[in-house]
Amino acid sequence: MRIALLIAAKDLRQRVRDRSALLIAVVAPLGLAFIFAGLLGNTTEFHAAYVVANLDGGQLAQVLRTDVIGGMAAAGAATVTDVPTEAEARAAVDDGTADTAFVIPAGFTADIEAGRRVTLTLVGARQAVLQTAAAEALGRQFGDGVVTAQLAVVTTAGLTGATLGADQVQALTAQAASMAAPVTLTDSAAPLRQLSLATYFAASMAIMFLFFSSSFGIVSLFEERRRGTLARVLAGPVHPGEVLIGKTLAGVGSGLLAMTVLVAATTLLIHADWGPPLGVAALAIGAILAAAGIATLVASFCRTAEAASAATSAVAITLAVLGGSFFPVSQAPDIMGTLALLTPHGWFMRGLGDLHGTDAAWTDALGPAAVLVAMGVVLGGIGLLRARKLVAIQ
Amino acid sequence: MTATPAPVVLDVQGLRKSYGQLEAVRGVSFQIRAGETYGLLGPNGAGKTTTISMICGLLARDAGHVTVDGRTIDTGAVAAKAAIGVVPQDLAIYPDLSARENIDFFGRLYGLHGAALRARAEECLALVGLSDRAKERTERYSGGMKRRLNIAIGLLHHPKLLLLDEPTVGVDPQSRNAILESVAALSHEGMAVLYTTHYMEEAERLCDRVGIIDGGEIRAEGTRRELVELVGQQDQVRLTASGDLEAAADAGRRLAGVTGAAVVDGRIEFVVEDAGAALPRLLEAVGRTGAAVRAVNLVEPDLETVFLHLTGRALRDAD
Hints:
The structure holds two protein chains of two kinds.
Chain A lengths: L1 H16 L1 H22 L7 E7 L4 H16 L3 E6 L2 H9 L5 E5 L3 H6 L7 E4 L4 H32 L5 H13 L10 H4 L4 H18 L1 H12 L1 H6 L5 H30 L7 H23 L5 H19 L10 H7 L3 H11 L11 H22 L7
Parallel strand pairs in A: 1-2, 1-3
Antiparallel strand pairs in A: 3-4
Helix pairs in contact in A: 1-12, 2-9, 2-12, 6-7, 9-12, 9-13, 9-14, 9-16, 10-12, 10-14, 12-13, 13-14, 13-16, 13-17, 14-16, 16-17
Chain B lengths: L7 E12 L2 E12 L3 E5 L6 H8 L7 E6 L2 E2 L11 E4 L11 H11 L4 H14 L15 H13 L5 E5 L7 H16 L3 E6 L2 H7 L2 E6 L2 E6 L1 H7 L4 E8 L2 H9 L4 E7 L2 E6 L2 H14 L3 E8 L3 H9 L8
């Protein structure tokens, strides 16, 4: 083990001095995480600017303006401005002061009460896709409420066989509106385990580039063989297995170094929230072992350092795509979610998500971390067995 | 009273290695004693590096036996390899580490550490003249400096046996001289040195005994005097000429009394039984090929002559 540690220490010293390695291990993932989080960062804090032209002023129009659209403003998700005419509402959208305009037509309340079809006009700015979509949702929410009330009135009239008076209709409408929905759908897990975009891309870039860092050890074996230093080392009192272990440790050490720097840097620079340190450490170690193991296995099929670098890079990119390093797999077809769990990336991101659940503890990461360690041990073990030929005496 | 001979450090017996149909080493045997420098002199491809690789356990042998300091060496003999220092033909140093860091790494590999490592590192760096630039990364070194560091690394752990595989290939004359002086100093420390080269001058200058190797076989072995005596009373005739020198050498080779002929550096070297009798016939035969002889020298036989005598070819001609 002394020899293996000696080789690993020497390799890490060389690694730290290699500027291109620093670029790949730290600068590139940090830069990409920064860019991705910056580009998509605006979507994390939704805010809409709405204008409302209430041309009706009746009771239901007021409910829509105050309770429904106003509810967004009360929640801090929108600012709502009233304008007297449709033209002014459209102008506000055109000149960019508003994302979306609501035009409540005259006769809105009366038409609804009479059971006639009404049209609520929305005018959305070209760039305000999300804000307009939210406005449409508000309109539908209001429409659903109206349908519920109308259904109550019609049902009562049908059951009693009598014509309802205006007071009765108003009372039934109010009662229907106040009733809680019999069935509500909630998703308690997904939102609570969601990573911020900064954290997501910091983590996904970190694990993608971890493959490049962790493959360094095994790839350098080819380089040493070409340079003749491997033969010189093996001419000494050194068992070939010690060289392999040393190279593996160098890859793990290199990955650990890169991951530590990246976690610290992304926390400080783009405010990534990685979660409880112990849990993150467990996941990081698992990911490093998995990356080093896969890199060893891939490199064991190669004959030169160039081929090994190219092959590990190709595998790293493929796994990154499958594992959701470039986009959240939750937004992709279901098959992607399944495929992601075949990759270290998928388990790493899943583990990080688990660390961000309500009442999450660092131990929640142990399951995914164990999967990552298992991947590393199994695949790395096969890789090392195959890589024996690289240090074999002919 | 006779002096007790120094103990045998390296004993090589019947070493064989084939690559497919090619027999690279064919039954090589020799011994080296403590304090002795033994040269393996032969052209490129003669089997020198293959022999060294088997001696240091880097290459599995097909047959034969190697012991170093009484311990059998094979590919699994990890501990026994500590008695061997290897200076490979190709540079085997880390360019992104300094000379000191290279030395520290290899020293620790051989179990040196602490004050002993520091002291030995200083000695070795001084021996090869690199003390002043020990902290520089070796990628900034000249070829000669890298060669000298290559040697220093092999010496670090005071090996009983030092294997130097063509250590001066590709270096400038000044660095070559420094390397040869360093190697000459080693035998005084009691180290057994195996020195492979295809430079006759190096073998003559450094080696107590020389094995002439060609085609994977040791063709002759002994001190310089013993080897030259193999040529017997034969003379070496050197013709400086122009024209088709190969044809001229062939013409001379067919003459009675001519035992070897080769073209070396624009000259034709002949080994003849009697220079006085052979010279007129040689000049006539060479002249018939159209070659124009500009100078004739009779030279004292040396290891080059021996190689020519044994193989019919010149050392560099055979490269």
